[in-house]
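Below is how a single chain appears once it has passed through the pipeline. First comes the sequence as given, then the structure the pipeline wrote out for it. We keep one example in the README because the format questions we get most often are answered faster by looking than by reading.
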Amino acid sequence: MSIEVKVPQLPESVADATLVAWRKQPGEAVTRGESLVDLETDKVVLEVPAPASGVLREIKMANGATVTSGQVLATLEEGAVGTAPAAAPAAKAAAAAPASQSSAADKSGPAARRLIEENKLDSAKIAATGKDGRVTKGDVIQHLAKPAAAAPVALAPAGARAEQRVPMTRLRARIAERLIQAQASAAMLTTFNEVDLTAVNELRSRYKDKFEKAHGVKLGFSSFFIKAAIEALKKFPAVNASIDGSDIVYHEYYDIGVAVSTDRGLMVPVLRNAENLGFAEIESAVSAYATRARDGSITIEELTGGTFTITNGGVFGSLISTPILNMPQVAILGMHKIQDRPVVVNGQIVIRPMMYLALTYDHRIVDGRDSVQFLVAIKDALEDPARLLLNV
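Resulting structure:
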């Protein structure tokens, strides 16, 4: 029986997708649930699974095509016996690859697999840093950056200047569009403060081993900042709002977006109802989201929505910055590098681990007083972490 392979239903916020690469070629046997093709949307790369076991008969959409929900991508003959395709370079390369290479490639995310196939790499030789031994796109790029052991060095002609021209990915184009939209439509203003993280550091140092043993996850800074942000948002609900046309939507729940830098661009997974999560649950969720965002296995639903966003430029060494709003949200918190600095405490100059905090907000919705007091509330909570447990 012939079965149509269709584009899955895309979320309302995603109009179409780009067909990135076929995993199978006509004539090849496929098993139910096996990935047939990768589709790239504005947010994630989607894998389209085989609806049944059989043989891929005909591919109707080529690589690079723009497709929409429900569109037919290919036809599959259920129950048929497949044969090796005669003119499929990718398939020939896969057939010639050792079993270890195929196994490692199967663990890779779609973006990583695409690079592996395009560059005819042995994925077994790529150092994997992803969860459960998954090879990420970053791992492949790092591998490609290493010079071949015995490869001759090609010298460019004197005076030659090389350059590459590549199309912008859908995700990168979407990021650019949203940044321009934020700059053009919001009255953005940034206010700053600094926080002494001595108490947080002492608490982490005292309980980090017990915490990890009890919960199976490390006690990082994310949970403290997310908890502190939620307590501050409860006191200043205007900061937890979003704009819908000419309406202001004041959210009575706290879906916190945590910005994650990936090889494909910035992604913002959302912790739903974060006010109901404990420290361990927050740390586990943030770690899992970051891993899946980087290896390309995160879903659109996990990147959609959010009432407030936190971004951490400090992991890259940023000392201070002005983050841009994640529209339609009206505020975003920027964390920065922790740096030992001399400060005055009780009339004495002491060295403390200090971090600059930045709150960018839409001045149309959030007043300057609320923005300043919001940052002060976060500062107070982090400098006296007992507040986070007592809700004071």
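The chain has two domains: 2-145, 172-390.

See the next section for the split statistics.
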